[in-house]
Amino acid sequence: MRNIEDILKDMTMEEKLGQLAQYNANLFLNSDADITGPLTELGLTTEELKNVGSVLNFRNAREVCTIQKQHLEADRHKIPMLFMMDVIHGYRTIYPIPLGLGCSFDTELVEACTRMASREATAAGVQVTFTPMVDYVRDARWGRVMETCGEDTLVNSRMGAAQVRAFQGESLKDKSTMATCVKHYAAYGGAEAGRDYNQVELSEHSLREFYLPAYKACLDAGAEMLMPAFNTLNGVPCVANPWLMQTVLREDWGHDPLVISDYNAIGELRKHGVAENMKQAAKLAFENGCHIEMCSSGYIKYLKELVQEGVFTEEQVDDACRKVLQLKEKLGLFEDPYRGCSPEGEAKAMLTPENRALARKAARECAVLLKNEGVLPLSGQEKKIALIGPMASTNALKGFWACQGRDEETVSVEEGMRNALPEARIVAVRGCGNTCQDLDMSGFAEAVEAAKEADVVILCLGEPQDYSGEGNSRAELELPGVQTELAEAVIGANPNTAVVLFSGRPLVLTRLEKMAKAMLTMWFPGTEAGNAVADLLLGKANPCGKLTMTFPAAVGQCPIYYNHPRTGRPKPANKDGVHMPYTSNYIECGNLPLYSFGHGLSYSKFVYEGLTLSADSFTAGEKVTATVTLRNESDRSGKETVMLYMQDVVASNTRPVQQLLDYVKVELAPRECREVTFTITEEQLRFWNNAHRFVSEPGLFRISTGYADHLLHTKELTLK
Ligand code: BGC
Predict the structure, then answer these.
(1) What is the pTM for the complete model shown?
(2) For a tag site, which of 17, 342, 428, 536 has the least CB within 10 Å?
(3) Atom of ligand 1 nearest to the CA of 57
(4) Using one digit for the tens of pLDDT, what is the confidence trace for 476-490?
């Protein structure tokens, strides 16, 4: 084993600074002539490039091996390079986008998918992934909601920690594991008006209670790295934000992970107007404990000068460099700089039948059945099926951030339905396009004809894949183009229509919902999309996803989320027992969302028979058991996520109308009745108070089951 301290002692300042920089693979793969332009832009010399310690955006094991070999031949210390990549929802076999994964409420499923991604990615040479992304979100206009698990802190924390555990495994010496990098610290999802990279202004209590805990949960689970976000938080860009980087991360949480900037985020400190030049930008980021600079060159260029001027000590540079070397050591790179990757091994690991089977299962479990008035499941006896809409025959269903996933390897709905029903007469008609600009209705007539002829219509609508993801915010949340008009024409011609939706975010489906008898949202389901759709439509699989992000009734309701604070003028509960805690009505659309957090139907019929508490009062240190009785009143087995909510009735701060306390997903056989138990402790009732501490306050709490705006069986519990 190499001794890191010995290596450090022998390194020049330039060599150490190389370890603190990361650039794109093309700089290392192309000839000197081809990289002159990009190098000039970065202000780098080829000499400086030789010392660089890590790489991103390579494509395969061959590139990793080439870069590593070339580097080791030139490096006098033989320090291997570190290879990082965004492995977000699969490497080559793509599973549903994280927003879909959240809706599965199934951490074991997420772990299994993550392990699959890790096996494929490590075979291709990836050593660190820029995952999990646990930005808490409340505004569906923001394109990056697709990368999150939604608007609940508990779900985000559990899913994030599950990904850390599954990627990192027991030991990073195991070559099928990789290190994780939690991002984007912090509150990037709070971008004002959902516009990407926009400022974030949040109170400390919102941050501490809703936005920050998931990053901490991932670090507690052992995440090796952390990435500060692009945005300003309360006026200060995150990478240079002392409150975030020092006070919260290091002092309050006691975590000191290896920190890497986001892409050119240090360079962008100049655009933010907090640094006059790259030297000042480098100073701001380094003094706030950012160790690696991604894709700008402030550290390589100016840290040496800053040490000579006495702004930083050489020990500080050593500390940062040591952390990089320690991660390389943990990953076993000094023993095997290639970490076992090879083009042959890579070819074998990709898209195996087992991987495809898991992706198919995941796509089924993440789908959410929004509405179903007797259309689904299909009987399988339908002779003539019309597949209509712009998403019916496309294989562009993997979603943004799909790494090495390929459309041509993705199963379209048409292919999936033909696989499942080889005997049926299936016609596929596009009808219209799916972009905002595409307003052409000339395909409607053919679609209407096909609908009239069919026993059942599967209407496949949605957003293009690149309408969500980085930089892709939307000002409207309706189906783009004339898709709702297509639905009107098609459903008018044949009401026996099930709508299948594909999107990277909650959509505004208010008009569609009035016409459609059945709506199933698949998010972007990944490689096995069409097969999973067929499984669900034909009842070979039973939908079990529940929304982790609210579907607004109109875009003007955004940001809208289930756990908002109470107000002085709440609307009273309506006669259906639906809670209407939102303040004051919007004139056009009321104040309720179309579908709340927690909504999701099944082909089974689940009845919540009751909720009991083991005590009606308790003290800190004691535990109360809550028991929910759930019955499957159907002849079909199915899964249900049972949720427990609470409301703190009186506290020194205004508390949310409801908060998810705990949840568990259970499978019930036909007609089975099951008691589901939860443990309530005083810690779960805490909040961030005005004295800047997490506390619980004695008093009354309301405990309920059901979901968000549809709470059931409320019981009172007193904390003494
Ligand atoms: C994104 C990060 C990502 C990084 C590297 C940035 O643009 O914000 O999420 O990890 O690029 O690809």
Answers:
(1) 0.98
(2) 342
(3) 12
(4) 999 999 999 999 999
